[in-house]
């Protein structure tokens, strides 16, 4: 099989509800999407959302990388193309992952084969602000089957703590709370926040309290924290996992496929986390069904904590002809099913496209 065509898309998918993190409010997700077609008729899909500040990549730089790579890979054996792209993950993790994931789907990577129906428990984010609305939201989420709730922090310490206490009071021991600061705290703010969360029940972990490159501050927070710390923005490579494993108080590592370089390297990183005595969490909260489906496939047998591959549930419309189903707080993967893209939805949300095909004469167009 050869790579017969690569189609690149830039999408704009509005969200049902604005999604606030410490440094940004998402009103839409704007991923790059790659469609790769093989000469034997198969196809594969990959995606990644580049968020400046979360990664060192820029949106335009990532798009240029995908365009140049697509042009070069036309007519190549997919396995050889994968080897080339994986060597570029360190410099272009999100952009390379977009094409790598598509090629892994085209070549039917073992991790993407669903031979038995699986249910992946998901966490649910809390969006509301005031206490009364939070109480209603938390009760609704728990009644819907969600057993892990995401509590955003890193905005304002006093406001963050008030919101945490409101959510904990509403949950009343019925759900675990996963706090995510998204690099929003200084060391002093993190210390104040830790003082305020002491005694709050059912906190599973505190995610990425300080900046991605501020290893010293994150290490100090982990050392004094009454709950385990999880690193996310700081983690890209196996060396980063090793560094995190050396820090007292770090108990979890969170991964996203777009940072590790596709499914194969993601599975290797998940296994490495276990080997270093830590626990993995997996999932991208600002991904569409394409990335969330692949991450859910990789979750099986490697992760036991609630997945964060819930970005698809935040968008107003879905990309799959048969949308991913969430029942009683769990995403269902049906045995033998491979996702198919709804072309009408893709076209309706497309804001850019580049096409690379192998002409009959052997050239590219």
Mean pLDDT: 95
One letter per element, helices H and strands E, the order comes to EEEEEHHHEEHEHEHEHEHEHHEHEEHE
Low-confidence stretches: 360-365
The largest sheet has its strands arranged as 7-8-9-10-11-12-13
Shape: globular
Structural class: alpha/beta
Question: How many distinct beta strands?
Answer: 16
Which percent range fits the helix content? 25-40%
Descriptive notes:
- The chain is of the alpha/beta class.
- It contains twelve helices and 16 strands.
- It has helices at residues 59-73, 78-86, 93-106, 131-143, 157-171, 187-197, 215-224, 238-245, 257-260, 263-275, 289-299, 343-348, and strands spanning 3-11, 13-21, 24-29, 32-38, 43-48, 118-121, 124-125, 148-152, 176-180, 203-207, 229-231, 250-255, 279-282, 325-327, 330-333, 350-357.
- The chain has a seven-stranded parallel beta sheet with strand order 7-8-9-10-11-12-13.
- Strand 14 and strand 15 form a beta hairpin.
- The radius of gyration is 20 Å and the shape is globular.
What can be said about this structure in brief?
Helix content is 35%, strand content 24%. It has 12 helices and 16 strands.
Helix-strand blueprint:
Blueprint: E1 3-11, E2 13-21, E3 24-29, E4 32-38, E5 43-48, H1 59-73, H2 78-86, H3 93-106, E6 118-121, E7 124-125, H4 131-143, E8 148-152, H5 157-171, E9 176-180, H6 187-197, E10 203-207, H7 215-224, E11 229-231, H8 238-245, E12 250-255, H9 257-260, H10 263-275, E13 279-282, H11 289-299, E14 325-327, E15 330-333, H12 343-348, E16 350-357
Parallel strand pairs: 7-8, 8-9, 9-10, 10-11, 11-12, 12-13
Antiparallel strand pairs: 1-4, 1-16, 2-3, 4-5, 6-15, 14-15
Helix pairs in contact: 1-3, 2-3, 4-5, 5-6, 6-7
């Amino acid at each position: 099989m050869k790579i017969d065509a690569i189609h690149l898309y830039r999408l704009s998918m509005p969200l049902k509800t604005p999604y606030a993190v410490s440094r940004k409010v998402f009103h839409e997700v704007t991923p790059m999407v790659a469609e790769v077609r093989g000469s034997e008729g198969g196809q594969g899909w990959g995606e990644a959302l580049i968020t400046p500040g979360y990664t060192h990549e820029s949106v335009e730089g990532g798009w240029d990388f995908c365009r140049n790579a697509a042009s070069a890979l036309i007519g190549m054996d997919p396995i050889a193309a994968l080897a080339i792209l994986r060597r570029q993950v360190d410099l272009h993790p999100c952009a390379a992952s977009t094409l790598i994931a598509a090629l892994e789907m085209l070549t039917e990577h073992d991790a993407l084969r669903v031979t038995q129906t699986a249910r992946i428990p998901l966490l649910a984010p809390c969006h509301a602000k005031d206490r009364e609305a939070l109480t209603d939201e938390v009760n609704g989420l728990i009644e819907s089957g969600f057993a892990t709730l995401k509590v955003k922090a890193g905005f304002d310490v006093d406001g963050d703590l008030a919101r945490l206490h409101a959510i904990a009071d509403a949950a009343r021991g019925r759900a675990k709370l996963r706090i995510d600061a998204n690099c929003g705290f200084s060391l002093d703010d993190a210390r104040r926040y830790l003082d305020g969360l002491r005694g709050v029940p059912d906190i599973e972990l505190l995610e990425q309290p300080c900046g991605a490159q501020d290893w010293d501050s994150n290490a100090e927070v982990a050392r004094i924290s009454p709950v385990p710390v999880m690193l996310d923005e700081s983690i890209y490579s196996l060396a980063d996992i090793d560094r995190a494993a050396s820090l007292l108080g770090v108990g979890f590592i969170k991964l996203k496929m777009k940072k590790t370089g596709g499914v194969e390297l993601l599975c290797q990183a998940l296994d490495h986390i276990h080997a270093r005595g830590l626990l993995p969490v997996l999932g991208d909260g600002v991904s569409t069904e394409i990335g969330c489906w692949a991450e859910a496939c990789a979750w099986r047998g490697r992760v036991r904590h609630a997945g964060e591959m819930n970005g698809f549930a935040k968008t107003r419309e879905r990309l799959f002809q048969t949308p991913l189903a969430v029942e009683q707080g769990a995403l269902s993967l049906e045995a033998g099913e491979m996702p198919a893209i709804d072309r009408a939805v893709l076209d309706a949300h497309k804001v850019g496209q580049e096409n690379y095909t192998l002409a009959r004469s052997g050239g590219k167009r």
